[in-house]
Every structure is written in C-alpha cells, then in structure tokens.
Amino acid sequence: MPKKLSEAELQTFLARAPHWQHSEERGGLISREFRFADFSQAFAFMTQIAMAAERMNHHPEWFNVYNRVRITLTTHDASGLSANDVEMAGLADRLAAAAQP
C-alpha cells in the first residue's frame, strides 16, 4: 500500500511545482489545468499520460475539452497524496513542456 506524503514532502513538492493546486478534499489531492495548441496536441498528451499510468498502475482523474486537460491526482489506497502522485505530476509537467513550441 502506498504511503501518504508527509506535510514536509507535500510542501517541498508544491514549492517545486507552483502550477499544481493542493486541496484537502478526499484526504488530499493536487490538480492542474494544461492548455495546448489544439485538440490533437491535448489528446497526444493524454495518450502519453495514459501509457505511463498503465505502467505505474496509477491512474489520474481528468477532464478534457478541446485544447484543455485538467488532471487531478490522489492515491485512494493512501487516503491522500503519495509519491505516485508526485511522480505523475512531474511526468505531466515534462510532457506538457515538451509539447510547447
């Protein structure tokens, strides 16, 4: 079972990833909206995330409208945030940055 992040670990992550917003809902979650040039680019991003999520067995909650993708991360087994969420957020940030011209 994944271990829930400590408050210090959470604060370290939030300091390094200012675009992610933290909420205490459901024991703790982080979310971020990404914007892309068009739907194809947003869908390609989601596909890359989906493939990584399957490998990690850690699946995001997300919402997509045209060029926007909103991702919410939490670890149900940890009743809050875990290292899996931090890893997935970092991957999302790197993939989104690589998609920008």
From TrEMBL:
UniProt cross-references to HAMAP family, sorted A to Z: Pterin_4_alpha
A Pfam family matched in the record: Pterin_4a
Name under which the protein is recorded: Putative pterin-4-alpha-carbinolamine dehydratase
EC number: 4.2.1.96
InterPro entries: PCD_sf, Pterin_deHydtase
Entry coiled-coil feature ranges: none
Any one GO MF annotation of this record: 4-alpha-hydroxytetrahydrobiopterin dehydratase activity
Gene Ontology BP annotations: tetrahydrobiopterin biosynthetic process
Keyword annotations from UniProtKB, A to Z: Lyase
Gene3D superfamilies referenced in this protein's UniProt entry, alphabetically: Transcriptional coactivator/pterin dehydratase (3.30.1360.20)
Assigned protein family: Belongs to the pterin-4-alpha-carbinolamine dehydratase family.
Catalytic activity reported: (4aS,6R)-4a-hydroxy-L-erythro-5,6,7,8-tetrahydrobiopterin = (6R)-L-erythro-6,7-dihydrobiopterin + H2O
